[in-house]
Amino acid sequence: MRKLNGLDWVALILVIIGGLNWGLVGLFKFDLVAAIFGDMSAISRVVYTLVGIAALYEAAIASKLMKK
Questions:
Q1: How confident is the model over 38-65, as pLDDT tens digits?
Q2: Strand, helix or coil at 31?
Q3: Which residues, at least 6 apart from 40, have a Cβ–Cβ distance to it below 8 Å?
Q4: Angle CA(60)–CA(20)–CA(7) in degrees, nearest 5?
């Protein structure tokens, strides 16, 4: 099993943040990112974009690990 590097950890943390935020939206109609940074503010959009990129990165890593 390969060790996680810094980028792997950052991506994992962002994906967890995104998952928890979607859980809050689904269960309570509460968007934590929007509550902290403002509804669709520039910072919120950056956070959402980084979470999406992290998810793509994690999906790519997962597919590579599955091939091993």
A1: 999 999 999 999 999 999 999 998 887 7
A2: coil
A3: 34
A4: 35
